[in-house]
Amino acid sequence: MTDVLQVGALAAGPGEKQYGVNEFSVQGQAYRLPMWLVNGAEPGPTLVVTAGVHAAEYASIAAALDLGRSLDAEVLHGRAIVVPVMNMPAFSARSIYVCPLDGRNLNRVFPGDAHGTASEQIAAWVFGHVIAQADYYVDLHGGDLIEALVPFTIFFRSGDDRVDQASMALAKAFGIRYLVSSETPGSTLSAATRAGVPSILAESGGQGIWTAEDVARHTNGLNRVLRHLRMLAGSAPEPTAFTMLEQFLWLRSDHDGFWYPAVAVGDRVAAGQDLGHVTDGEGHVLQTAISPADGHVLFIVSSLAINKSDPLLAVGA
Ligand SMILES: [Zn+2]
Asked: What is the 282 CA–ligand 1 centroid distance (Å)?
C-alpha cells in the first residue's frame, strides 16, 4: 500500500502511526477531536473504531485508548482510524446521554447535518471524514452513568445481503454472547450500515465504572475483529457461543418519579411479567413496567430518579 491515510488535517504515510487532534468549526466554535491514524505497512481493509459517542461509557473509551496506543503500523495489514472520545464536550462535563452543546443525543442524529445543531454538525464531520473511509466499523458503547447492562453486540439488517452478512460475521467475531439485531434510527450503526459499511455496536461496562474485565471484553473483541479481518497475523478467532435476539424492546417512563426495578440485568423474563414500578413520593404506583415478550433483560436504568420519557430498561427477545 502506498497511499497516505488522511483524515482532515492529519495524515499518516504507509507504515506510520499518527496521534493528533483535528479541529473544525461547530456552531462557529473550534471543536477538537483527538484520533489515531494507523496506516499499515501491508495492504488490507480500513477499520474505523469509535467510542465516546456517549462520553460517560468509560469501559468503551478506555478500550479505544488502549487500541490506539497499542496498534503497530509496521505489522498492521490495512488501516485503522481510532476516535476514542467522539463527544469531548460531554466527556468533560460527565454528561449522561446528551451533548451539553445542544442537549441532543449524538447517537440519534447520524449521519448528521453540516448546517444543523451542534450534535448534527459533529456527526456530519465524523461521518464525512472518518466513517465514510471505513470498510468496516465498530462503535464501542456501554451502560451510561445510570445504566447497568449485560454485555451485548448490536448489528442491523439493512436488507443489503452482502453488508448484513458481513455485519453479522463481525458481531460473532467480537465474541460477546448476546447478539441483538436492531435498528435505532440516527445511530452511528444505522447510518454506517445504510451507507454500505458492515458495522457493529458493542456494549460492555456501565454505571460510570470501568473494570479491567469490562475493558478487556472490548479490547479482546477488537483483537478478535482484527484477526477476523486478517488485519493482524494469527489464527482466526475461535467461535464462541451466542444467543441471537431479533428484537430490542425498550420500556420508558410515562411519569416523573421514583424507579424501582424488580429484575436484574441478564434475567430471563416472560411476556406479561412485572419488571418494576414507577412511583410517586408517597409510594403510589404510577406505572408498572410489563415485559412485552419472553426474553432477557439487557439493560436497566439504575437511578432511583426517573423522568417522563426516560428509558427504564430493555428486553432482548
Ligand atoms: Zn451508548
From this structure: 33
Distance of CA 37 to the CA centre of its chain: 20
Q: Measured between alpha carbons, how far is 252 from 313 in angstroms, rounded to an integer?
A: 7
pLDDT tens sequence across 209-264: 999 999 999 999 999 999 999 999 989 999 999 999 999 999 999 999 999 999 99
The answer to whether residues 178 and 298 touch, using CB atoms and an 8 Å cutoff, is yes
Q: 248: closest CA among 194, 202, 292?
A: 292
Confidence of residue 286 (pLDDT cuts 50, 70, 90): very high
CA of 233 to the centre of ligand 1 (A): 31
pTM over 0.90: yes
CA of 293 to the centre of ligand 1 (A): 23
DSSP H or E run through 122: helix 118-129
- Assess contact for 252 and 312: CB atoms under 8 A: yes
Distance 188 CA to ligand 1 centre (A): 10
